[in-house]
UniProtKB/TrEMBL annotation:
Cross-referenced Gene3D superfamilies: Aldolase class I (3.20.20.70)
Organism of derivation: Butyricicoccus pullicaecorum 1.2
CDD domains xrefs: ALAD_PBGS
Protein name (Swiss-Prot/TrEMBL): Delta-aminolevulinic acid dehydratase
Reaction catalysis annotation: 2 5-aminolevulinate = porphobilinogen + 2 H2O + H(+)
Keyword presence, GTP-binding: no
EC number: 4.2.1.24
Single GO cellular component term: cytosol
């Protein structure tokens, strides 16, 4: 017979104790802030599709650094907007390319800042696809050559980590090989291991000017119906020498973050993408949700699923929430 005096209890006590026994912990060190660097001078412009985020020319990156320092954010990932694009995306690996300029400026002004670079072609090609075309199809092997040159140029400019996001087969092994051969054995590779052909990327493509001029990217990004395929992609990147595995997007793919955490003994990153950010912003502006609360709850759900690292446009705000004890 059930003894009513013995009941399972949910912890009801002070805020101090609740924080002490939290099961999911987050640190500002686990947050990465995406930054858009645009060729030119005196550019500091809010991105209409991403309220609160900006395009910076290299000479204006001090503004980003001041904001990051004020909030305790010390890790960024750079995306470049070149002034000129061509069919092969040659600006991606140019020694004076826009990302290379951005790396050098950040390291000049804030040597302590950890700079990660997105390695892809879509921002640099005139057609907006993530590689070298053969007709209307991306040529995987030709694309590997330019991805390797791009990753190496980023490391030579001072990048602390490179993050290939193209989803070409074999790119992690080739990038690791060229970095090692040129003395950059200590530059890690964070692989976009499970990157889906998602509808959540719209605001980013507007911000980066990277929408494809024809077709779509489903031939090289993943079908969002598939989960087992994502684990195969992760396994291949582990075998090729990836240091960190990423799942992108985050909120609609929590099951894959959880499964990657369960299967692989590597740090797991998740990218809370532009569409996720924009939806929270739009719903908050319409008075439908509490922006701060939803931001915090969404971030915690990603870490609870198993992520070790979160790439998020809310990095500064989340760092503040952690410091105040609202999360973390």
């Amino acid at each position: 017979m059930f003894n009513e005096t013995i009941r399972p209890r949910r912890l009801r006590t002070s805020d101090c104790l609740r924080r002490m026994v939290r099961e999911t912990r987050i640190s500002p060190d686990s947050l990465i802030w995406p930054i858009f660097v645009r060729e030119g001078t005196d550019i500091y412009e809010e991105i209409p599709s991403l309220p609160g985020q900006y395009h910076y020319s290299p000479d204006q990156l001090y503004r980003m650094i001041e904001r990051a320092r004020a909030h305790g954010v010390s890790r960024v990932i750079l995306f470049g907007l070149p002034a000129h694009k061509d069919e092969c995306g040659s600006g991606a690996w140019a020694a004076d390319g826009i990302v290379q300029q951005g790396i050098r400026k950040i390291k000049e002004l804030a040597p302590e800042m950890y700079v990660i670079t997105d390695v892809c072609m879509c921002e640099y090609t005139s057609h907006g696809h993530c590689g070298i075309l053969c007709g209307h199809d991306v040529d995987n092997d030709k694309t590997l050559e330019v991805l390797c040159k791009t990753a190496l140029s980023h490391a030579q400019a001072g990048a602390d980590m490179v993050a290939p996001s193209d989803m070409m087969d074999g790119r992690v092994a080739r990038i690791r090989e060229i970095l090692d051969a040129n003395g950059f054995q200590n530059v890690p590779v964070m692989s976009y291991a499970a990157k889906y052909a998602s509808y959540f990327y719209g605001p980013f493509r507007d911000a980066a000017g990277s929408a494809p001029s024809f077709g779509d990217r489903r031939s090289y990004q993943m079908d969002w119906h598939n989960a087992r395929e994502a684990m195969r992609e992760c396994e291949l990147d582990v075998q090729e020498g990836a240091d960190i595995l990423m799942v992108k997007p985050a909120l609609s793919y929590l099951d894959l973050i959880h499964e990657a955490r369960r299967r692989f003994d590597l740090p797991i990153a998740a990218y809370s993408v532009s569409g996720e950010y924009a939806m929270i912003k739009a719903a908050a502006k319409a008075g439908l949700i509490d922006e701060h609360g939803v931001m915090c709850e969404s971030a915690v759900s990603i870490f609870r699923a198993g992520a070790d690292i979160l790439i998020t446009y809310y990095a500064c705000e989340l760092a503040d929430a952690i410091r105040k004890g609202e999360i973390g």
